[in-house]
Amino acid sequence: MPELNPAERKAVEKLMPFYVTGTLDQEDRERVEVALQTEESLQAELIFLGALREGVREATEVPDVGELGLARMRRSVRRERRRSIVARTLRPALVLAAGLILVFQVVLLLQPGDDGARLAGAAGADLQVTFAADATEGELRELLRSVDAQIVDGPSAAGLYRLQLDPSPEDEEAWARVLETLGGRPDLVTFVERE
To answer: Considering the entire predicted model, what is its pTM?
Structure first.
């Protein structure tokens, strides 16, 4: 077979990509096939274009939606299985830790007293007081020592402290002196009342 003239060769080269994709009509397809029989360089180009087309198709191939969903479901099942294993192994430890914390809190809250045990916050308070916002710790300590009192609870949401006197006054005159001492310091005590 005779070689192709340059114009025919150029026309066939332009048709080659469409030949590879199978989109040529019958006449153009036969034209390319005849040229492929006579030109080895066109055969090499055909192999190159076929490999190029395959590479592009593989690079841009989108997995089937069903495959994506299945892969996602498998990942989710593996993740849940790991969580379940962790939960089963940690649950007893967490229950034990919570129990120990509860026991620890009960031990801290219970103080030995005359009658066995009583809650620390519920110790017998004698007075309720509110301290001035600008009172210093040293001033309050000195004032409480002067009446033999100690803070047993507080401050509450309203700012109230509960005080216990040691010993608790037995007569009304002694109570009056304590109330007068605390009430006589409006720079430190803004409210005082017997319980």
So the answer is: 0.37
